[in-house]
Specification:
About 85% of the residues lie in helices and about 0% in strands. By secondary structure, it is mainly α. The chain has one domain. Helix 1 packs antiparallel against helix 4, helix 2 packs antiparallel against helix 3 and helix 3 packs antiparallel against helix 4. The protein is elongated.
Length: about 90
């Protein structure tokens, strides 16, 4: 489960960066909103998967509420999932 969560966390982090630094500039500078739709949908699905997997890991590994909150908050901060992965899942 940890390995799958690490993969989803990495993909979620990459999708957020693509959304912020590729798709949004393409939309507002070059008037190409298609990329926001595609990358935004992928990011949304990955975000939902990330939160579901974090909840499952909280129950499976008996995370305290502070750790669970930090893991969830990391998903909305740029580079947050990469930091969280190093901090909490380095031994997995």
């Amino acid at each position: 489960m940890n390995k799958f969560f690490k993969i989803v966390a990495t993909l979620e982090g990459i999708s957020l960066l693509l959304l912020l630094f590729v798709a949004m500039p393409l939309k507002y500078i070059f008037d190409l909103p298609e990329f926001v739709r595609v990358i935004g949908m992928a990011h949304g699905l990955l975000f939902i998967g990330y939160i579901i997997l974090a909840t499952m890991l909280k129950m499976e590994e008996s995370w305290n509420n502070k750790k669970f909150f930090e893991v969830c908050i990391a998903s909305i901060i740029s580079f947050g999932t990469f930091y969280m992965e190093k901090k909490y899942l380095k031994n997995s």
